[in-house]
Design goal:
Layout: H1 4-50, E1 54-57, E2 60-63, H2 75-85, H3 97-107
Antiparallel strand pairs: 1-2
């Protein structure tokens, strides 16, 4: 059986090998990703020109879909708006992990309606 030092050394080597392979893979597929992006853009432009939502061909079907992405670069302005208008339905309610942990530590209890679990993981850092 290997010693703990040997096991940790081998774990570190495996993680470094994985990281190197992931980086090499990312670099290897970068030209393909660029080609794909260029082709998708060209097909979307053609769809726009033709006024269609899809192209059905023997090679496959290309179709448009939309996805909404919402971000909040000015949280203060947004929260002021919510408070002023009372439109709290614009907010998502979820517990803040750090605040729940602090609450639990100070009281040895959880707020009502909260489930709490911890998992133990093995971590290491390079020497």
């Amino acid at each position: 059986m290997a010693t703990i030092e040997q096991a940790i050394q081998y774990l570190r080597q495996c993680k470094e090998e994985k990281a190197a392979k992931e980086a090499a893979h990312k670099e290897a597929v970068a030209p393909l990703n660029a080609k794909i992006e260029k082709l998708e853009s060209a097909i979307l432009n053609k769809m726009q020109l033709d006024g269609v939502q899809s192209y059905k061909t023997s090679a496959g079907t290309a179709f448009k879909s939309s996805r909404v992405v919402i971000s909040c670069p000015d949280k203060s302005a947004f929260m002021d708006f919510v408070k002023e208008t009372g439109m709290f339905e614009l907010l998502e309610v979820r517990p803040l992990k750090s605040a729940v942990e602090e609450y639990k530590t100070g009281r040895d209890a959880l707020p009502p309606g909260i489930d709490y679990s911890e998992e133990v993981r093995l971590n290491f850092r390079k020497a």
